[in-house]
Design brief:
Elements (H helix, E strand, L loop, with lengths): L4 E4 L2 E5 L18 E6 L2 E5 L7 H10 L7 E5 L5 H4 L2 H8 L2 E5 H7 L3 H6 L12 E3 L4 E4 L2 E7 L8 E7 L2 E7 L4 E3 L2 E4 L11 H12 L5 E4 L5 E2 L1 H19 L15
Parallel strand pairs: 4-5, 5-6, 6-7, 11-14
Antiparallel strand pairs: 1-2, 2-3, 3-4, 8-9, 9-10, 10-11, 12-13, 14-15
Helix pairs in contact: 6-7
């Protein structure tokens, strides 16, 4: 049974897992959030979830009005399995073009150094038709969005910002998950194997805050609606990172260079 959730005009929440029991399973238990944006026969998916959830994502999209052939683009916010693994199957079923950051595109294309940097250990590859640099424009259905490179959780992360039916929207993947239930300022996990860097992540959060968005669509948990709630949530993310960076000798605890 379809579990599509309308978020706002032109935006639907069509995939995701329960994320620690906080959210409902929309497509597959292990999946990150998948959002559908568009209208008038032209749509985009932001992230792809897990392979076993592809059929559910498309069923939810169909309820929202998007047939498989109407989905023209799949955006990969970053190369973590719970956001990426469903992309080959969704691409096969829809014919959609894939867009991702340059580092992600190299890794997905099989570049050994890029895959090592992102800790990608399996042999799967995926063609990326649009490589996103900072400031590039990308169409999400009929809406124009701007790509922002937002490393920190993982070096290849990209955030998208644009206007949808009068709302300023940011799609943050796991860079900023924000206030979720009783937890304030959640960010994506940090792991040295992934090239995580809390200093880079703080800078990325500060850039996202400058967008002054009305709606934040994160890679896990619930969407955050309302300009003041988004502002507070991002400030909570930044404060969490400032506290982490204040830990003495943090650089000895994580294999990264905090000075860069």
């Amino acid at each position: 049974m379809s579990k599509v959730k309308a978020v706002a005009a032109g935006i639907w929440w069509v995939g995701g897992g329960s994320w620690g029991g906080l959210t409902e399973v929309l497509s597959d238990e292990g999946s990150g959030n998948v959002f559908l944006i568009g209208g008038q026969g032209e749509y985009a998916l932001i992230d792809a979830g897990m392979p076993d959830g592809a059929a559910a994502v498309l069923a939810n999209a169909a309820v929202a009005g998007a047939r498989p052939a109407d989905i023209k683009r799949i955006i990969v916010t970053h190369c973590h399995h719970d956001h990426l693994a469903g992309a080959p199957e969704l691409k096969r079923r829809t014919g959609a073009a894939v867009a991702a950051s340059e580092l992600a595109a190299r890794a997905l294309g099989g570049d050994a150094e890029a895959r090592k940097r992102l800790f990608i250990r399996d042999g799967a590859t995926l063609e990326v038709e649009q490589v996103l640099a900072d400031g590039d424009q990308v169409a999400l259905g009929p809406y124009a969005f701007t790509a922002m490179l937002t490393p920190g959780h993982i070096p290849d992360a990209v955030t998208l910002t644009g206007d949808v039916e009068g709302q300023k929207v940011v799609l943050t993947g796991d860079t900023a998950i924000g206030d979720q239930g009783p937890a304030k300022g959640v960010v994506g996990w940090l792991d040295g194997h992934w090239g995580s860097n809390p200093k880079h992540l703080l800078r990325s959060i500060e850039r996202i805050s400058q967008c002054q968005a009305d709606l934040l669509l994160p890679g896990h948990g619930f969407p955050i609606q309302g300009a003041e709630k988004v502002r507070q949530s991002l400030e909570h993310c930044a404060e969490r990172l400032r506290q982490l960076l204040a830990i003495p000798d943090l650089g000895t605890m994580m294999p990264l260079d905090l000075a860069d």
